Amino acid sequence: MLENCDVVVFSRIDIADVDFLFRNLNNVRLALFFDFKPVYTYGTPFHEKHLSAGEVLLAFMLYADTLLNISDIEVILDRAYKTVFYAIREVEAAVHRGFPLVWSQFQHTISGPTQIDESGKVCSGFKGQDPPRDSRHRGGSSRSGRTRWKGRHGDQLTLVAACRDALRVIRGKLGIAYETDLEPVMEEAADLSQPLGEVWTDGLQAYRRMEHDHKIVIHDETYVSSEGIHINQVECLFSVIKPWLRKFRGLSKHGLEQAAHTFGIVRSVNLVGASFEFLVDCLAIGDSTALHKSASC
Questions:
Q1: For 74-222, where are the E strands, in sequence order?
Q2: Which CATH architecture has domain 110-131+150-272?
Q3: What is the DSSP letter of 180?
Q4: Which of 181, 184, 161, 156 is closest to 251 using CA atoms?
Q5: The whole model's pTM is what?
Q6: β-strands 114-122, 157-164 pairing
Q7: Residue 278 and residue 99: Cα distance in Å, rounded?
């Protein structure tokens, strides 16, 4: 929780901190340098923005690690929606590029079995409004024929997730084919930790094609086998990400893929107890990678 002081340093933002910002935004000078506008920012998310560097970072943290949506964040920062939206998207892309290298240098051993599971089709809520309710919930008649708003879902994808120790890898996929949807998530988890040992899954037939040491739990019979096999970490991850995705009120396929990836990164960072500087490092490395590629073209 933030204290009432002149300078505030974020290690991690929670809802109480957001409430503090709403009440004290005009009196707080953040250590993220809200008034600092760097000059040498070409090719970075800070270039030619109507936001200071600190505001760009704060916007991303509120987006990634709270249930605030971009409409809420624009109110906090007193900026236009598109200004905040594009700043967040650029930071998000840079963090995605930089995360593998920064994670590999972080002093934390990832070991143990890897749990893999897939969700049913999920979306990021109804576009523009809350899901439509039956008219009787609004005090009206429940008889058919009454005019009511019919919402349009955001694009739908299957979430495929891998959990190993504190590492969380989650991706939006079109289906549950092994080669194109399930295996890439497993290999990403291996790249971010070490060669996979045991892999625990449910009884989905597609997983039987893997070459790893594979153990299963049949959910129709039990959630934890007699050998202690389970996928409870992944089930927990799905229960946490779904309300986080609903805050967007409808995302495109590409937006949903990005958001799911971001959630896995931030969840992993939080579980290993890394500070805010970890994500700043990801941003810096991601920017330098993009600049190197553009210079090589």
A1: 114-122, 157-164, 167-173, 198-201, 213-216
A2: 2-Layer Sandwich (3.30)
A3: I
A4: 156
A5: 0.74
A6: antiparallel
A7: 9
